[in-house]
Design brief:
With 839 residues, the chain is α/β, with parallel strands linked by helices. Helix content is 34%, strand content 23%. The strands form 8 sheets. It has a 7-stranded parallel sheet, with helices on both faces. It has a 6-stranded parallel sheet with strand order 19-29-28-20-27-26, sandwiched between helices.
Length: 839
């Protein structure tokens, strides 16, 4: 038995911490609860040894070993180490993200009386009252009640003190601040299983026989027995009580039967509902057989699975080509070979149809992992997967860490989507981690998209990925016709700026008259995204961020669900700050405030004016907030209850609505002016994806794109659905400027609450890089970040570019070494390797 263990903890430090095991048995890869910095943290053991640390190092003892065996298999531990090295992230924070088991550890505070508190208690209220003159008599009494309760010296939990004395946490913390109490952290292990209680008829009562006599029961008790017998002798207690209550039978009747041994109560695992989208996914099973292109794509993937070994595939399939059908067929082949399969999607809330189709195909074999689950649900699903009870896993980027036994196939749907990139430490990219996991396992990985990222396309062109193409829509349906509407010409002809062009209005009305559906993309939330004073030019900005506040008009009612929306306000879409709309400019007091720009809310209002008979819905982050909002909205769209939908880019992501024949795009090309080398790629992807929502049924589709830059190469290639042409042109510019995928990139963000502190760190690191110029690495900056202040944090950044990955990695490690040597706080230096945004 080893004496010491090295533990990786979820803290922003690139090191492990040594603890004494104190006679407890443990193994590499198990979780332990340890004291750290005045709190209790859960870490993972990376090594066991008997080497005593130096005498000047205080070694604390492990509080508790939480697992009998390692929870992560060797390949996931190896993957975690790769992520830590590649993305310059602390290993402890990486491993924490790989195990979503926070529900199994409950963190709370305990309080015990301090010497100063004991002195106050003994001296009495008269002597202590002068120090507490600002407190009410009631709070003073509560303070003394707390001190009396804790007089024995034993610690008590917050909830215990609240129940015994009426003191809330604020009062307890105030007493700790006055040093009357000592506040200490407490971490307890809990069972995160979600269980329900089932009522079961005792076996000798389940099937009454002739001549058998039951104990004397009243009418209500007999009714309970009869109800249970009619349910097959067992029923959920909550369901049973609901039915009994409707008949006026009290709960005490069931309790009496339990006491008399005629009914027993058992625990059972609570059912987990993967999707509530009704029959939307069931249509897949009987929709149609695979066409020739789908069959060839499936054959390529299955051949790679049967051959074994690592070989990534890029599945380039145009919108409507039936990629999901290929995914399901490939997963069925994996299960037939006694393998498990993992499907990653960008945002589970935006693609409920995918989850529904998987459930229709695989039933109880499906497990979900995504951020909208409760902590208990995530832990439950994670353990189901680890035990091999769910061989098909669907989830967002963190599902790439699902502990799946015998994993044989990894699929990444919409692999181009920026949602796969995590924007907090560890800043990994789910797509790239999926490829590395497949490499470590030696299994097949498929990246699918109608608009592949240029990184994946470049890998396919160089032969690193096998390219699989599906260039026709299912049932040979035509791609929609795309037309550009020159808004410059529109202004010259009408003499005024209009949100919707005359052509788009005419085509929308004609489509609605034919009882067909229309989707209009307006990729900004709110009503207006800039509020400016006409007198002094002042823009109303967020008090926490250097960002213009967005005006939300509010005041109207959602006609589809009858819920009143939040009233008018100014809101920051970065930090959530809200304020009322001022009547005058805060700077010059002028009443002439000007609202610039149009968001989806203004678009909805304008459409209601133009088409009063239309059934209009809106899809953006203001209308789709909870787990079921998207499913309800899509259900209305599928049923035809909505025939005109306006929204942000959420409407472009994977929805298969057969009644949509017209798509309008408004104001998408403003993003071409953003200070980001990926701006053109994002606009082309958005135009292609939203265009793909049209003409997916029997009727052909049409797309109208309003633009001020009709001659821009993005728009010209979008007209002809020419992804390969766009990729070639964009790669030409990337090659000239040495941007990814023809180079490697890292964004080093320097941040802090005080501008002077950030400037000091930026100056120090900038001078060091200039003096110790890394070989083969070009450094741009330091300079203010495009979003120079977010959530009260000032931000500068430096961009590091290199031709080879090894050069960039060496430069970043050397920079972080200097950061540690200079004792610059690691929270002030954020390294983002392979950033998808430079904002």
């Amino acid at each position: 038995m080893s004496l010491y263990c090295d533990v990786a903890l979820p803290v922003p430090l690139d090191r492990v911490f040594t603890y004494e095991l104190g006679g407890q048995e443990a193994g590499v890869g198990v979780r332990v609860m340890v004291p750290f910095g005045g709190q209790r943290l859960v870490g993972i053991i990376l090594g066991l040894h008997d080497t005593q640390p130096p005498d000047d190092v205080e070694v604390k003892r492990v509080d508790r070993v939480l697992d009998e065996a390692p929870l992560l298999p060797d390949e996931l531990m190896e993957l975690g180490k790769w992520i830590a090295a590649y993305y310059c992230a602390p290993l402890g924070e990486v491993l924490r993200g790989m195990m979503p088991l926070t529900a199994e550890v409950r963190r709370q505070w305990t309080y015990r009386i301090a010497e100063q508190g004991r002195k106050v208690l003994y001296e009495g209220a008269a002597k202590g009252s002068s120090r507490r003159s600002r407190l009410s008599v009631e709070d003073q009494n509560r303070e003394y009640a707390v001190l009396n309760y804790l007089e024995s010296g034993e610690p008590a939990k917050t909830a215990t003190l609240r129940s015994a004395t009426g003191a809330n946490k604020a009062l307890l913390d105030a007493m700790a601040k006055k040093r009357w109490l000592v506040r200490e952290p407490l971490a307890e292990v809990r069972d995160a299983r979600r269980v329900e209680i089932v009522a079961v008829l005792a076996e000798d009562n389940a099937e009454p026989t002739e001549g058998k006599r039951l104990p004397k029961l009243n009418d209500n008790q007999l009714a309970v027995m009869a109800e249970l017998a009619g349910c097959g002798s067992r029923e959920l207690v909550r369901e049973l009580r609901s039915r009994l209550s409707a008949r006026g039978i009290p709960d005490s009747s069931l309790s009496t039967l339990v006491k008399r041994g005629l009914v027993r109560l058992e625990e059972t695992a609570q059912a987990f509902h993967v999707t509530s989208l009704g029959n939307h996914g069931k249509k897949f099973a009987h929709e149609h057989a695979l066409n020739e292109a789908q069959t060839e794509a499936l054959a390529t993937i299955v051949t790679a699975m049967n051959a074994g070994g690592f070989k990534p595939h890029l599945l380039y399939g145009i919108t409507g080509s039936g990629k999901t059908a290929v995914y399901i067929a490939a997963m069925q082949r994996a299960l037939s070979a006694n393998k498990s399969a993992l499907l990653l999607v960008p945002e589970i809330g935006l693609t409920p149809g995918t989850a529904a189709q998987m459930v229709a195909a695989f039933g109880s074999e499906v497990a979900l992992l995504h951020s909208q689950l409760t902590p208990d649900e995530r832990a439950e699903q994670w353990h189901r997967i680890r035990r091999g009870e769910a061989r098909v896993v669907i989830g967002t980027r963190s599902a790439v860490f699902a502990p799946m036994p015998n994993l044989g196939l990894i699929l990444v749907d919409e692999e181009h989507d920026s949602s796969y990139k995590q924007e907090e430490t560890p800043r990994y990219h789910g797509r790239d981690v999926a490829v590395m996991r497949a490499k470590l396992l030696g299994c097949t990985v498929v990246l699918g998209s109608a608009t592949p990222s240029l990184e994946s396309w470049n890998n396919a062109e160089r032969g690193r990925y096998a390219l699989v193409q599906m260039l026709e829509r299912v049932q040979q349906r035509p791609l929609p016709k795309v037309e550009m509407i020159d808004m410059r010409e529109e202004f010259r002809e009408t003499g005024k700026e209009q949100l919707f062009s005359r052509r788009l209005i005419e085509e929308t009305q004609a489509t609605l008259d034919r009882n067909e559906q229309v989707i209009i993309l307006l990729n900004r939330r709110g009503y207006s995204f800039v509020v400016m004073c006409r007198s002094c030019g002042e823009k109303l900005e967020c008090e926490n961020c250097a960002i213009s506040l967005t005006y939300h008009k509010g005041g109207e009612e959602n006609s589809l669900n009858g819920e009143a929306r939040v009233g008018q306000r100014l809101e920051c879409h970065y930090c959530g700050y809200r304020r009322t709309v001022p009547k005058a400019c805060p700077k010059c007091q002028s009443e002439h405030l000007y609202y610039l720009g149009a968001g989806s809310q203004q678009g909805e209002e304008r459409l209601q004016e133009l088409f009063p008979g239309a059934r209009i819905g809106r899809m953006d982050r203001d209308t789709v907030r909870t787990r079921g909002d998207m499913e309800r909205l899509l259900g209305r769209l599928h049923s035809g209850e909505i025939n005109l939908l306006v929204g942000t880019q959420m409407i472009a992501k994977g929805h298969d609505i057969h009644g949509v024949t017209l798509v309008g795009v408004v104001g998408a090309d403003f993003a071409l002016g953003l200070p980001d080398f990926r701006a053109a790629e994002r606009v082309f992807q958005l135009l292609t994806q939203v265009s793909g929502r049209a003409g997916r049924g029997e009727l052909p589709g049409k797309v109208l794109v309003q633009t001020y830059q009709p001659d821009h190469y993005v728009n010209q290639f979008a007209i002809t659905h020419n992804y390969t042409g766009f990729a070639a042109r964009e790669m030409y510019f990337r090659r000239a400027m040495r941007y990814p995928p023809l180079s490697v990139l890292a964004n080093v963000i320097l941040q802090g609450e005080e501008l002077e502190e950030v400037l000091g760190i930026a100056t120090k690191l900038g001078r060091w890089l200039a003096k110790n110029k890394p070989e083969g690495v070009r450094v741009l900056g330091p300079a203010p970040a495009p979003n120079a202040r977010l959530k009260r944090i000032y931000r500068y950044h430096m961009v590091l570019k290199a031709d080879r990955r090894e050069q960039l990695g060496a430069a970043l490690r050397a920079l972080l070494g200097f950061v540690d040597a200079e004792q610059v706080p690691r929270r002030a230096v954020v390294v983002d390797v392979d950033p998808v945004h430079l904002m």
